[in-house]
Design a protein that fits this description.
262 residues, alpha/beta, Rossmann fold, 8 helices, 35% helix, elongated
């Protein structure tokens, strides 16, 4: 955390996200899964949304999969990375939209590196029309728990300096409170987990890099991680978490959040 209370390097995150554009189609499986789950949420809502915002759109998977689902008339896309070709390029920390603009704002796995999440939620609420809906999926605190424990465990065993390498994610018990703090009505937060198997920890780290989701913490150690530390982390992961077939699991927790503007 810097002197201004910031945790994440947004400029670095923009660079990582921009770099991910070229091969994004190989690494978009979590985004697609989140989009499908958000579509299922919309299926349960019996009303229409003439104008919807895809907040943190990446390549536009939400409109691609959801289309007119949930009574959406028109989608507006925005993203931090210009190379994804969104209709609006903007930082989620500083939304450029007028008050009472959208009937629906949806975000799939794009708000977890925001420094002031309550502040962004307040901006989202302002941009919604009365009776508008905010629907989002954020990574939860159990995301990458095996990798987090392996980094900590290997550092303790081998004496490597322990530097923050994985972002702090929101706890499900706090998610509803954040919506309430922002002034949303009928806030709901639910949690579910997905387990993805990898041949080794290096394959997992390559996936995270391909998603543009490698370390953007301001407090991270500057410079490359020593190869010996990477190897020790991989060995710890394999020793403590390997499955019977030799693969290792990676947990991704999805926290689905809904709130209405009264």
């Amino acid at each position: 955390m810097d002197g201004n209370g910031k945790i994440f390097d947004r400029a670095l995150y923009r660079k990582r996200r921009t770099r991910a554009v070229k091969e994004w189609g190989q690494y978009d499986f979590l985004k697609r899964e989140a989009a499908q789950r958000l579509g299922e949420c919309l299926d349960d809502i019996t009303r229409t949304f003439p104008l919807a915002l895809d907040l943190g759109c990446h390549s536009g998977i939400l409109p691609e999969l959801l289309g007119r689902k949930g009574g959406v008339g028109r989608w507006i896309s925005c993203d931090l990375a210009e190379n994804f070709n969104p209709q609006v390029v903007c930082d989620e920390e500083f939304l450029p939209f007028a008050d009472n603009t959208f009937d629906l704002i949806v975000s799939a796995l794009s708000l977890h590196h925001v420094n002031d999440l309550p502040g962004t939620f307040i901006q989202i609420k302002r941009a919604l029309k009365p009776d508008g809906l905010f629907l989002a999926i954020l990574p939860g605190a159990n995301t990458l728990k095996e990798l987090r424990m392996s980094i900590t465990g290997a550092s303790a065993e081998k004496g490597f300096p322990l530097s923050p390498r994985i972002a702090p994610f929101v706890e499900v018990r706090d998610a509803g409170a954040l919506l309430m703090r922002a002034g949303f009505a009928l806030p709901v937060a639910d949690s579910d987990t997905i387990e993805v198997n990898y041949p080794d920890s290096f394959a997992l780290m390559l996936d995270l890099q391909g998603m543009g989701e490698s370390n953007v913490l301001l407090s991270q150690h500057k410079g490359c991680t020593p190869p010996g530390q990477l190897a020790a982390t991989g060995d710890y992961y394999q020793t403590h978490y390997a499955l019977d077939d030799g693969t290792i699991p990676a947990t991704f927790e999805f926290i689905t959040m809904t709130g209405w503007k009264s």
